[in-house]
Amino acid sequence: MTMQIQQIAKIAKARILCGEKENPPISRAFASDLMSDVLTLEVDQTLLITGLANVQAVRTAEMSDINCILFARNKRVTEDMIEVAKENHMVLMQTTCSVYHTAGLLYEAGIKPIF
Amino acid sequence: MEFDYEINGGDFSRAGFASSHLKKILKQVNIDPKVIKKIVIALYEAEVNIVAHAWEGLIHVKIDPGLIRIEVQDKGPGIEDIEQAMEDGYSTASETVREMGFGAGMGLSNIKNNADDLQISSRVNEGTELTIVKKLY
């Protein structure tokens, strides 16, 4: 099962910050603030849920072929993050929910874990 | 094709420029995305290592038919015990580096996992050299 980003945004009560016209299908999610861990993932169609809002979170996703990041707890997403995301046709989203809450909502809706 | 990149120690805002550039080049020459991912992850880990630990660094990338060779040289504190540094979980990273989402002691072993060959040499208080080799097909 794959989900479109509009569906993900609705379920996770998230706002799409950029890339709304991109359409990466999402079937799995990984929640982490540790980018070193994200860099070891070997899967695609993955959503990254994180509380770490900096350019390196976006760069890590770029290198890992992750096309969609959901920032939890309304973490501030800066212009330079959006710039890197746009350059790489990525979707950035933001929700007021915590990482735990976000992960719970998406898990319940059928988004699979990686491990 | 050959490319050179200069990396400044401590400048987290620019970490990833070399990997990002190389990724675009490799896509243009139609390399399998799975192979590209391995190469750019190895290079990105190396870039982050320079930014996190060294004072400055140089990356030289050489793409030959069927093979990529990445040489990473930095001026920095060096690695005292390379074997220990290769162990998962061993890290000398600062609090600042950890706040950036790195410094978990997984970088060097992840470079090795993504490369076909990794050579490391280092001199304490001088710097570290990595050579990463990966077949393109």
The name of the CATH topology of chain A is Udp-n-acetylmuramoylalanyl-d-glutamate--2,6- Diaminopimelate Ligase, Chain: A, domain 1
Multimer state: heterodimer
CATH superfamily of chain B: Histidine kinase-like ATPase, C-terminal domain
Largest sheet of chain B, described in full? 5 strands, antiparallel
Structural class by helix and strand composition of chain B: alpha+beta
The helix-strand sequence of chain B is EHHEEHHHEE
Tally of domains of chain B: 1
Radius of gyration of chain A: 12 Å
Mean pLDDT of chain B: 96
How much strand of chain A? 15-25%
Kindly state the percentage of residues in helix of chain B: 25-40%
How many DSSP H or I helices of chain B? 5
From N to C, what is the helix and strand string of chain A? Answer: HEEHEHEHEHE
Q: Give Rg of chain B in angstroms.
A: 14 Å
Strand order of the largest sheet of chain A: 1-5-4-3-2-6
Tell me the number of strands of chain A. 6
Q: Would you identify the CATH H-level superfamily of chain A? A: HprK N-terminal domain-like
Count of separate structural domains of chain A: 1
Structure description:
- The complex is a heterodimer of chains A (115) and B (137).
- Chain A has 115 residues and is α/β, with parallel strands linked by helices.
- Chain A has helices at 5-11, 35-38, 55-63, 79-87, 99-108; strands spanning 14-18, 28-31, 46-50, 68-71, 91-95, 112-113.
- The two termini of chain A are 17 Å apart.
- Chain B has one domain (2-135): Heat Shock Protein 90 (2-Layer Sandwich).
- In chain B, strands 1-2-3-5-4 form a five-stranded antiparallel sheet, covered by helices on one side.
- Chain B is 36% helix and 30% strand.
- Chain B has helices spanning 17-28, 33-53, 82-85, 95-99, 107-114; strands at residues 2-8, 56-64, 67-75, 117-123, 127-135.
- In chain B, helix 1 (17-28) runs antiparallel to helix 2 and helix 2 runs antiparallel to helix 5 (107-114).
- In chain B, a hairpin with a 3-residue loop joins strand 4 (117-123) and strand 5.
- Chain B is of the alpha+beta class and 137 residues long.
- The chains are: A alpha/beta (115), B alpha+beta (137).
- Chain A binds chain B through residues 33-37, 39-40, 52, 54-57, 59-60, 62-65, 80, 84, 88, and chain B through 12-13, 15-16, 19-20, 23, 33, 37, 40-41, 44-45, 48, 100-107, 110, 113.
